[in-house]
Amino acid sequence: MFDILFVMIFGLSGRVLTKDTDTKGRFSSPVLDVTEKQLIIERNQTLQLNCRGRWELQWVLPSGVPKSFQSTQIQETRCGRKTNQYCSNLTLSPALAQYTGSYRCRYLQKQRKQASVYVYITDSQRPFVKMQSEIPDVVYMKEGEPLVFPCRVTHPDTNVSLVKYPLHVLAPDNRNIIWNSRQGFSIRSPTYFYIGLFSCETLVNGVKYSNKFLTHRPVNKILDVYLNSTSLLHTLQGEILALNCTVTAEWNSRVSITWTYPQKANGSATISRRISRSRTNMLFYSVLTIPRLSKADRGLYKCQVTSGPSKRDTNTTVIVYDQPFIRLKHRNSPVVQAFAGQKSFRLTPKLRAFPAPEVIWLKDGMVAAERCSRYHVDGFSLVIRDVSEEDAGIYTILTGIQQYGLFQNLTLTLVVNVKPQIGEKTVSSHQPGTVQRGSRQALHCTSHGVPPPQIQWLWHPCPPKGLSPARLA
Ligand SMILES: *[C@@H]1O[C@H](CO)[C@@H](O)[C@H](O)[C@H]1NC(C)=O
Ligand SMILES: *[C@@H]1O[C@H](CO)[C@@H](O)[C@H](O)[C@H]1NC(C)=O
Ligand SMILES: *[C@@H]1O[C@H](CO)[C@@H](O)[C@H](O)[C@H]1NC(C)=O
Ligand SMILES: *[C@@H]1O[C@H](CO)[C@@H](O)[C@H](O)[C@H]1NC(C)=O
Ligand SMILES: *[C@@H]1O[C@H](CO)[C@@H](O)[C@H](O)[C@H]1NC(C)=O
Ligand SMILES: *[C@@H]1O[C@H](CO)[C@@H](O)[C@H](O)[C@H]1NC(C)=O
Ligand SMILES: *[C@@H]1O[C@H](CO)[C@@H](O)[C@H](O)[C@H]1NC(C)=O
Ligand SMILES: *[C@@H]1O[C@H](CO)[C@@H](O)[C@H](O)[C@H]1NC(C)=O
User: Fold this and answer.
1) Quick one: which ligand is closest to 14's CA?
2) What is the distance between the alpha carbons of residues 121 and 289, in angstroms, rounded to a whole number?
């Protein structure tokens, strides 16, 4: 009971703390010697705050207080009757209006355990914590969040009004427009009305002071991301690589474009950027250039785009060859088979080459496409339309990369299979004739086909006389 009473007395005034009974739970948070929630002092006065606790202490000062500044002194001592406590005394002298803010003392190891006091340092020539500047500060509007004009003041009773340019005075209504001397004005549900130039204004001794703000509603719409190569990109060592990533975004958007690529750590690439506006959109270009490719530059190149919470990316894979090459081989065998009457037939040997070679097809030593209108070159294949027997022959593919003096030829033989046909059948069907018994007769059968057909004769004995074929059945 005594302990509880003691804590209450201690709570009311830290200065009473002279005896220290190490009761459990005491100093679970550090304790300041001021018990008020806020202090008001004048400029040039000295601000002294003393903090005490069970463990090592640390101060968190308002952003306006310069770090490692002569006028800031922190004295740390062991204190308490058994010197088993920690004391940290902060002295700011002279205090300046821009030091207005929340002063917090916390445990170094348990930072959530803290004590704080809000200190106003009044200055009749500086009603706003932030100095007025001719260039307005930009305030971003975010969907679903209140809009805050951070015009904190150095005296809690300062009368501030919010003005929308050119002349629209907004009074706090405690519903949508809220005034708070420690924060400034906040608008709970900002509408389009709140886009524009605003200022917080106050009159001190007939002098007008203001803090200006420009509100901005960021647009984060990425409409399109385009990389001028998205499939495999084949290149040669020593060559230049240039990739152009183009981002189309809504007007007023800001985007950030970053590249990831294999040699990023070495910084082997240079990146240039450009922005242009069309009537409806913004275009952002980022061009990545590697002046001399090496083997180590092969791999994935990714253009990543972010605009606020929106993200998009696109990529390409770069293959770097040591040197130009042509590899030309038969697909299965040097002889290929087609059938007469086939709608089309494609001659395609295996060809891998870089850079792309020139290709010429010869048939029997003459340029194929000039020989017959049914032949045409598609990619590096030769396509034959309506295959006929005369297409059989020797074909040669000539490949070459003139620039590097690389040439390779390959010859293949096309066999066109033709279904056997009997010549006599096409002329007329022979009527059974009568020949003299014992005479010598020659029967002719002419047949053609590829490969040459084999001819076989079959003899069907005539049905006995007087019996018609129908009866026989
Ligand atoms: C504070 O001190 C400065 C210089 O030391 C002086 O110019 C100023 O008038 C003082 N301000 C107040 C409010 O005493
Ligand atoms: C620091 O503050 C404590 C009280 O918390 C006080 O007893 C002590 O004298 C102060 N030390 C200095 C150097 O001001
Ligand atoms: C602020 O305005 C109120 C009434 O409008 C007035 O009573 C008060 O004195 C003003 N405060 C200051 C610091 O000018
Ligand atoms: C990048 O590509 C866009 C369109 O694809 C083009 O307008 C732009 O000029 C290119 N940038 C460079 C540096 O070539
Ligand atoms: C991509 O764009 C850059 C810059 O405009 C250009 O130099 C490069 O040749 C283009 N690359 C491809 C694969 O089109
Ligand atoms: C890039 O860095 C790696 C390792 O840091 C190194 O082995 C390599 O030679 C570098 N390449 C270039 C082109 O500088
Ligand atoms: C590269 O882009 C393709 C789509 O263009 C996507 O499917 C793939 O996941 C991307 N790869 C990486 C590693 O981002
Ligand atoms: C390829 O064929 C052409 C024409 O028949 C010939 O001039 C050339 O020497 C041949 N090249 C090779 C590498 O066989």
Assistant:
1) 2
2) 55
